[in-house]
Amino acid sequence: MNSRYVVLLATSIFAISSTSTQVSAATKTKQQLNLKVAAVHRGDRYITGTATAGAKVKVTRYAKTFGTGKVAKSGKFKFELKQPVKANWHYRLTVTKKGYKAKVIHFGVVKKVTPAANQNSDVAKLLARIEQLEARLNQTQPNSDSAEVTVLKNQIANLQAQIDSMEPRLLDVYEEKPEWKPYLEQIEKLREENSVKYDLFALVRETVETTQSNVDYYKDRLNEKKIELQKDQENQSLQLEVYEVEKRYVESLDHLEKVKAAHEKVGNHVLDLKQEMDGIDLKIHKLYDQLKLLGYDYGED
């Protein structure tokens, strides 16, 4: 065969192979992630649900991460949040996995417990029971045909069927539209910036003298308790009191340093700081007005 034709044939095959790979990769990135999440109510500390196996789940609010988790091989996930969710707040839940299009939703937290809330509480219990059974299954030989393994698998399948029939979903869920993203990102950055300013403002509103007097109070109280303890060293109740007072004394010292640092940083510009905070709040409000024109209508919490 002519070497010229060999080169042309090899080049054509490579081009077709490369195109096929690119098309395959492009197709893969367009795969959609599955997601079902149990409704979230005031005071809840856990996020539970089902999603594409191996995906990562993250809950945030204004750039602050409240919790993360990973979807198990079974397609289920459950993870604890850093603090309980608050009524009437909205949170962002992001699901990601390599080769898939990221899925971002927002969800609201309802104040009152409804029948749907009881249903989702049942879902959480069923998921916990499935986890227990799967742990037992893993301790045995899951690939064997023993009677115990069969019973465990049947129990897991039945529980999963109950969950599927309930179809748990988030209340007040809405998917994030691409055109919202730049506005929401700006709002998150501004919220984060103002959060620092609000903390600083709260500190400068406290006088150094008042904070110092609080330190002096705990210092005197600690000395008194230590003297009492020296007279009765076996008294466990006194030992605990000394521990608690000393803890508060250390905390008050730390707070005093923060107040002093805040006053040193702000100086006589407290009004300027307040105006900066109000200015940022106004920018956020205007961004929400622009979002509403794009169909966003989920509050400014």
UniProtKB/TrEMBL annotation:
Keyword DNA repair in record: no
Extent of the signal sequence: 1-25
Domain Bacterial Ig: 36-94
Keywords from the UniProt entry: Signal
Gene3D superfamilies given in the database record: Immunoglobulins
Stored InterPro entries: Big_6, Ig-like_fold
Coiled coil: none
Keyword presence, Signal: yes
Protein name stated in the entry: Bacterial Ig domain-containing protein
Species per Swiss-Prot/TrEMBL record: Secundilactobacillus odoratitofui DSM 19909 = JCM 15043
